[in-house]
Amino acid sequence: MKHTLIIILAIFLIASCQQGGADQWPDDLAGKKALVKEKRTALKELQADIALLKEEIMEMDTTQQEESRRAVKIDTISTEDVSRFVEIQSVVEADDAVMASSETGGRITQMVVREGQNVRKGQLIASVDMQSVDKQLDELQTALTLAEDVFQRQSKLWEQNIGSEIQYLQAKNNKERIEKSMETARFQLTKANVYAPISGVVDMSMKEAGEMAGPGEPIVKIMNTYKVKVIADVPERYLPVVKRGQMVEVHFPALNEDRTLRIASVGRTINPANRTFEAEVALLNKQGIFKPNLMAIMKLKDFEAKDAVAIPLVLVQQEVTGKDYVYVKADGPDGAYAKKIYVAMGERSEGNVIITEGLKVGDQIIIEGGRGLAENELIELM
């Protein structure tokens, strides 16, 4: 009987909204606008009444409740090891990079190597013109000949007790001084050639044949790319979790390659400009594919938990009061239903969150169809 009254009421509401045809509509613009507003208000009221009627029908009609069970998927809670990684932009640098330079100034007479060429330690790089030193040696040789002759004569006179001791000592000192100057000049001649201080590849040539090179001025830059290093500037908040010897994952986007490497050193100071410290890993580069300044991404583990209860973060819902909860499957007299469980969340990692309170191993959590569920609502498994 109550169902009949509900249906009659719905028909009456629909008929009331349909009263008045197009022939009874007002002709003026203002009247038409007012009528539209009135119809919209009536429609909203009608829709609200229909929704209320449907809820009452659901409460009264048990067969309808059985048909309206929410289809859901469930998963059984278990423990797992959880790790979280942070990605730090890094760069590849050569393990050794030195400048080959001339110890004496002069014009470069020849360049033996070119950019990109592999060189061995001690290999000839360039030669510097030492003509001025050669001329100096000639002058010193002439002076030495004279000094030796004077010294010999003065020695004979001194042996015969002729002349003063001062004259003898001055002649001797002059000869020895010129000999030392010649040794220095000959040593300078050995610096005419520039040799490679390390084995590697010529990365850059700063001078060409015919140009002047000053003392200590770089001529070429040599890099040892057989061994390279990956350096990351790590924010200081990760200082407690970054240790020497720790294994890290390094990804090279340009090469689409990943390597598992060990941290070789950790910086001892914090850069005050950006509040970071350096973490460095060593990398063999036999094939030469890892070029200096190549970009890399270092993945550092900053959190780890053993045997933790972790679920996807999207499964956690929140009440208006701020309490977090999930739905689990429970069994009752009318079958399976959705049970609300309040939870406490811990650390998060890659879309998952550790549940510290609320869930236990064996609980059957609803993983699909949980949005829009009501507490104690009947459910069925997909």
Structure notes:
This protein is an alpha+beta fold and 382 residues long. The protein contains five helices and 20 strands. The strands form four sheets. It has a six-stranded antiparallel beta barrel with strand order 2-9-12-11-10-13. It has a four-stranded antiparallel sheet with strand order 6-5-3-8, with no helix packed on it. Helix 4 packs antiparallel against helix 5. The model has no long low-confidence stretch (mean pLDDT 82).
| Sequence of strands across the biggest β-sheet | 2-9-12-11-10-13
Largest β sheet strand count, sense and barrel closure: 6 strands, antiparallel, barrel
**How does the helix and strand content classify structurally?**
alpha+beta
* Fourth CATH level, the homologous superfamily of the largest domain: RNA polymerase II/Efflux pump adaptor protein, barrel-sandwich hybrid domain
Runs with pLDDT <50, length 5+?
A: none
Q: Approximately what portion of the residues adopt beta-strand conformation?
A: 35-45%
Q: What's the β-strand tally?
A: 20
Show the helix and strand layout.
Blueprint: H1 2-18, H2 29-60, H3 62-67, E1 70-76, E2 79-101, E3 106-111, E4 118-119, E5 124-128, H4 131-159, H5 165-190, E6 193-195, E7 200-205, E8 212-213, E9 218-235, E10 247-252, E11 257-266, E12 276-284, E13 295-312, E14 317-318, E15 324-332, E16 335-342, E17 344-349, E18 352-357, E19 364-368, E20 379-381
Parallel strand pairs: 1-20
Antiparallel strand pairs: 1-19, 2-9, 2-13, 3-5, 3-8, 4-7, 5-6, 7-9, 9-12, 10-11, 10-13, 11-12, 13-18, 14-15, 15-16, 17-18
